[in-house]
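[step 3/7] fold_predict: job queued, chain A
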Amino acid sequence: MQRLATTSLALMLFASPAAAAETPALRQSIPADAVVAIFVTPLEAPTKTGTVRSSIGLATLLADQAQDLGLLSNIDATTRAWIDTLTASSALLNYPHAAALFEIKAESLTGGGHKLAGLSAALVVKTAGEHAPIEQRIQHLLNTYTNKDATRLTQESSGETVVYSLTDNRLPDWCVLHWGAIGDHYVISIGEGTFDRVGKTLSGDTPPIASDNWFATGYEKTSAKQAVFSLFARFDKIDFTTDSQLAKKVGGVRSALGLNNVDRGMWTVGFDGRAVDARAFVRLNDKNQLSPITLPSLEGIPVDKLIPPQATAYAIFNSSPGTALNASCEVFLAARAADTQEETRAYWRDLQEASGVDIHRDIVAHLARGAVIHNHPPHILRLPLAWTFVARVTDDPNAVHNSINALCNTWQRELQETSTVRLQLAPDGVWYLELGIPGPAVGMRGPWIVMSYSPFAVRENLTFLAGPAAPLETPPSPTKGPKPTAIAPTEAP
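[step 4/7] structure written:
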């Protein structure tokens, strides 16, 4: 458990930030030899108190209150580590930040798995001088997860920079943490020499990633200046040849994502109003290629008929739902061991045979191009991934609806026999998993399929997509005129 706690500390320290005053662009702070670089600009600036106006900020506040009241003292170490990871990471989300990976090594285990054999990475954050909350988080982690018998904490001063170092005899030799303010930035790194590497870039002694011609072109082509998230990757520099099994897994992921012949790429996500604007710029077979990942609208369907007006953000993907689904499944499987892959494939193969439904032939193949996600209705806890997915059936919606019902009926029976998770069918035809609380869920009405985090969210969107209900017809008012003259009954002869 001590090893787990110290490992968690390493991860948590790497997910925290701090420091600043006048700061150059983050792309000027990452060394040019980074294999992977990520740049994030939060949509909301931090408040004066340093809190985050988000679901993570709310969770952090609750965790802090529980800590102050002593409610976390009796929980197990793993749960405590996850809570501390959340609260430490929340500080990061306040500020613009960049992360860089320089080197990663892995070794095969006899049981077929892998272990991390080396890592060199850094986090660079600009905080406009508001770094005290970050250092308080770091101090809390040190107090909670280190001890004098296993860990060694040192500090070294160089001019105005104070660098802290942490080693732990329960961890591999390569796992060395460094953190401290460098000029206008706060840097947290893992791996010997990584902190100095970033420091030399910040001081101008070594070139930044912005000086790379291809990076600069991609940054301009994808309009990264307006992006809230940017990812740059050099696949030609990632080497797993010393671990053939891991190399095979990485190759499977690249193949599933269509990146087999891509040696470098840049992907950005920004906003055009409330529409997500995502773009990709890659070097494919030695040729540069720029392509949109999302579209501003769906052909033939006005946005106001597709996206609820209450949604503050939406994305319409420039691909078919089937392509996205296949890629997601293949990435999930490629990252797992061969036996796990086969078990998962066999599970869904058996489920399809028992239901008589081929998911791709009977459902996915009927979906129109342009999958849609949006954030209405918002989750009660504002969870960032609790969005709603909408797909449109191009032909024979009734057949697709019947296929979904047949598949879910079979899955419902299978879960009743093998799992504590339950699949339920609501009276209005919405299917949902019962995980203590209802959700996730899926429903269909007309040509629309909606998947979301709860039955309520599905119903809200199905009602919106159906359009306003036609007003009820009222009988015409009787015309005013002279009252009819009463006719006396006549006697029968």
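[step 5/7] annotate
The chain has three domains: 2-211, 216-292, 298-466.
The longest helix spans residues 397-418.
exit 0
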